[in-house]
From TrEMBL:
<dbReference type="InterPro" id="IPR005900">
    <property type="entry name" value="6-phosphogluconolactonase_DevB"/>
</dbReference>
<dbReference type="Pfam" id="PF01182">
    <property type="entry name" value="Glucosamine_iso"/>
</dbReference>
<dbReference type="GO" id="GO:0005975">
    <property type="term" value="P:carbohydrate metabolic process"/>
</dbReference>
<dbReference type="InterPro" id="IPR006148">
    <property type="entry name" value="Glc/Gal-6P_isomerase"/>
</dbReference>
<keyword id="KW-0378">Hydrolase</keyword>
<feature type="domain" description="Glucosamine/galactosamine-6-phosphate isomerase">
    <location>
        <begin position="11"/>
        <end position="238"/>
    </location>
</feature>
<feature type="region of interest" description="Disordered">
    <location>
        <begin position="162"/>
        <end position="184"/>
    </location>
</feature>
<dbReference type="GO" id="GO:0017057">
    <property type="term" value="F:6-phosphogluconolactonase activity"/>
</dbReference>
<comment type="function">
    <text>Hydrolysis of 6-phosphogluconolactone to 6-phosphogluconate.</text>
</comment>
<dbReference type="InterPro" id="IPR039104">
    <property type="entry name" value="6PGL"/>
</dbReference>
<comment type="pathway">
    <text>Carbohydrate degradation; pentose phosphate pathway; D-ribulose 5-phosphate from D-glucose 6-phosphate (oxidative stage): step 2/3.</text>
</comment>
<protein>
    <recommendedName>
        <fullName>6-phosphogluconolactonase</fullName>
        <ecNumber>3.1.1.31</ecNumber>
    </recommendedName>
</protein>
<dbReference type="GO" id="GO:0006098">
    <property type="term" value="P:pentose-phosphate shunt"/>
</dbReference>
<dbReference type="InterPro" id="IPR037171">
    <property type="entry name" value="NagB/RpiA_transferase-like"/>
</dbReference>
<comment type="similarity">
    <text>Belongs to the glucosamine/galactosamine-6-phosphate isomerase family. 6-phosphogluconolactonase subfamily.</text>
</comment>
Amino acid sequence: MSEASVAVHADADLLAQAVAARLVVKLLDAQAERGAASIVLTGGRIAAAVHRAVLTLPAHDAVDWSRVDIWWGDERFLPAGDPERNETQARAALLDLVPLDPARVHPMPATDGPTGDDPETGAAAYAEELARAARPGHAALPHFDVLMLGVGEDGHVASVFPEHPVHHDTRPVSAVRGSPKPPPVRTTLTLPAINTAEEVWLVASGADKARAVGMALAGAGPKQLPAAGVQGVSRTLWLLDRAAAADVPARLRSLR
Ligand SMILES: O=C1O[C@H](COP(=O)(O)O)[C@@H](O)[C@H](O)[C@H]1O
């Protein structure tokens, strides 16, 4: 498992541009090595800015988007097309604007979809979809080149919230009820599933994230602060703006 590293950028715009540039390079590298790339998207404000920034980079045209698998780390359990869904936001900002193969886009279930309005059924269906994409002879998950996460003010990542029963779920995908952040019903990859990704990038901007980011990097417990329990297989990278990095120990920072 990887040590965490931290890159700090001056503000939210530069952070979004830098994450977008890293993402495009990551996709190109993965396609050069394996012929395809697999990424896991997150929701939230900075994620939307990253998605928009990808399109502004001329190099995004060098990616073969038809050979990119898109997964989600969590989803708000709402009808398809609801503006609050992470999928809807990602489609509007990026996915509908690049030539993806629809068969390689794997949104988490919606309440009005074929798996129905029971989040446990939806979570089980997503786990099956992940398992179908797993490499033969490997665990129940596909290879993820990079998995991106936002970080909540309370330290949540994906829809793994502090002190929530989701921490006891050992399956890769869990239904979440009673989320402290609306909407209350969600589906999420669990921390063990998140930590199978080759690289995990935690992206946070703004002063309201500084306390959670600082505590996670100072070694808080993952049940109290889920972001502290995230570790990519070969890399765990915190990508922050200056405001979100205010409480990061100086020895961990590199200002870009
Ligand atoms: O509800 C959610 O929030 C988090 C963080 O969002 P932000 O707007 O504070 O950056 C996000 O990472 C997660 O995917 C989403 O479902």
